[in-house]
Amino acid sequence: MEHARGLVPKTRSMALRIIGRLLTECFGSDAINIGTITPEQVRQFFAQEALRYSKPSSLASVVASLRGYFRYHVSLGDHVHGGLTSAMAYPANWKQSALPKTLTTEEVTQLVNALGRPGPSMRRADAIVRCALDLGLRSGEIAHLSLDDIDWRASTLTLRHTKGAREDLLPLPATTGEAIAAYLKQERPRTTNRAIFMRIMAPLDQPVGPDLVRKTIRQAYARAGLPYTRSHLLRHTMANRLLAGGSSL
């Protein structure tokens, strides 16, 4: 899950709990024999799991976890019943029948105009908002940015901790680079840590986490007078701006 699929710790932990419940249901305290699990057992387990979730769309995690587990055993050469991966279907989810919510052009201007204010950690906040707004980075990707990821002469940024566990080379817009440079020169605490965005409260000498990135963006919305809380909204906004500019899906 970590090395081949690039799943984050929270997703891996959830998958292990789901798989553990299936194995306990099928074998109890007996030895595990994957080859004896039948599609009917998987369907019955799936029906039981459905009672744990308030929304059918949440069952997608159960399907993904079990299918990944069965495919893993197939890759090891273990005997697995051929119908296990097809015993479950992803539940229908039509909520994305329209494009996701994005900031309007006026709201983007309102957010940008609220940047540059004086105060503790304001340079860091401006740089974080710029990374999300100008590049569409996820909160985890922002938190994991390193000084070694930026090529200032080439104006590029290498994204090494993506959701798909791959490396992406992105252009570094002037507005983003200027915001990061201002933070590095004027506000970033002295440290040997190579992470760009550092904590200013205990534990010191540690990079910020995704939760702090999301909190920073929520606070930026509030300063701009915008009624939003989701940091991912800026990623959707970036995608919408690319489409409006002629980029393909």
Describe this structure as you would to a colleague.
- This protein has 249 residues and is mainly α.
- A hairpin with a 4-residue loop joins strand 1 and strand 2.
- Helix 4 crosses helix 8.
- The two termini are 28 Å apart.
- The model has no long low-confidence stretch (mean pLDDT 91).
> How many E-type strands?
3
Low-pLDDT sequence parts? none
CATH-assigned homologous superfamily of the largest domain? Intergrase catalytic core
- CATH second-level architecture of the largest domain: Orthogonal Bundle
Taken as a percent bin, the fraction of beta residues is under 5%
Shape: elongated
Biggest sheet statistics: 3 strands, antiparallel
- The overall pLDDT, averaged over residues, is 91
Q: How much helix, percentage-wise, in residues?
A: 40-55%
Write the layout of secondary structure elements.
Blueprint lengths: L8 H19 L11 H12 L9 H16 L29 H9 L8 H14 L3 H5 L6 E2 L4 E4 L8 E4 L2 H13 L23 H15 L7 H13 L5
Antiparallel strand pairs: 1-2, 2-3
Helix pairs in contact: 1-3, 4-8, 5-7, 5-8, 5-9
Short description:
The protein is built from 9 helices and 3 strands, in the order H-H-H-H-H-H-E-E-E-H-H-H. With 249 residues, the protein is mainly α.
Main features:
249 residues, mainly alpha, DNA polymerase, domain 1, hpI Integrase, Chain A, 2 domains, three-stranded antiparallel sheet, 4% strand
